[in-house]
Amino acid sequence: MKLYRRYVGREVMGAVLLVLLGFLALFAFFDMLGEIRNVGQGGYQLHHAFAFVLLRIPGRVYELMPIAVLIGTLYALSTLARHSEITVLRVSGLSSGGLLTVLFQVAGVLAVLTFLIGEYVAPPSERAAFQLRSKERTGMVGQDLRSGLWVKDERSFINVRIVLPDTRLRGIRIFEFDEDAKLRSMTEAAEGEYVVPDSWRLTNVVQTVLEGGRAEVRSVPDMQWRSALNPDILAVLLVSPDRMSLRHLSAYTKHLADNHQTTNRYDIAFWKKVIYPLAGLVMVALALPFGGAHSRVEGVGLKIFVGVMIGTLFHMLNGLFSNLGAINHWSPLLSAATPSILFLLAATAMIWWVEKR
């Protein structure tokens, strides 16, 4: 690799990581402020809040990486242009295409890092964070095993085979124990729906009651079940589609399709997971026409502000097209890729305009 490639790549990479670190510190601070109000609820203490914020950092890295790439590249290129280093490189024969190739190499490394974090680090870390908070605040312990989701509610243990996206439950088993830790009853239900606060309606129920050394079996079409378990607790024991790994998204989408349920939301989330790491490539292309031009010192701050605005717009469009695609049943690939395509077209047009000048 030529000397200028190493130099420009090092400058851009350093600026991106510095911006990412600054964003992480800012978001961790605001996350911590949000968690302070929960301290004191149940057994939730200050050190639990710190652990919750730390466990959410991999997810924040995944979210913020494209914005950090944009702002970091803008800052690095603006600094090089202000010191006339870009001018020297151009006089030496470096074209915009050559500079863009260097930026793509840096963005490619960061894209791989983003993918690995989003696939292997962020999902389990996010799940652990919310399970920790739920356990300490409510005293309920949830764990997702091959046999389904297990939750402890006082002296009851609840096993749920499937939690649907609307928080309805399927394949429910409730084991109730007495004060001496002896099994008192076991209730099985085909499906459960949350109807009123602290109450579920169970359907196709078979209940086995153990009394005096004998077992009595009762079957009823439906029954009310009161429990501290609620949809909010179930939501934090699960990972949202945007936080799920590609493997889990694929498996869950297949499960929904096999049961003739709508999969559009999860299909969009799948393609977003595929495309989102590549957003860094679009961002460096977008930064080139802004950052590569010579500017005075005060111009750097303006470019950084523009970068923040563009990054915010990209984040908002990602969410907007995902929701519009789910509502209007658009193509999942098109819904996930449209923001990146729009920004890539804008970057191409701006590079062409700068070169024409």
TrEMBL record:
GO BP terms, alphabetized: lipopolysaccharide transport; transmembrane transport
Transmembrane segments: 12-30, 64-81, 93-117, 274-293, 300-321, 333-354
Keywords from the UniProt entry: Cell membrane, Membrane, Transmembrane, Transmembrane helix
GO cellular component term of the entry, any: ATP-binding cassette (ABC) transporter complex
UniProt keyword Mitochondrion, yes or no: no
Recorded topology in the membrane: Multi-pass membrane protein
Subcellular location as annotated: Cell membrane
Domain of life: Bacteria
Cross-referenced Pfam families: LptF_LptG
Protein name per UniProt: Permease YjgP/YjgQ family protein
Protein species of origin: Accumulibacter regalis
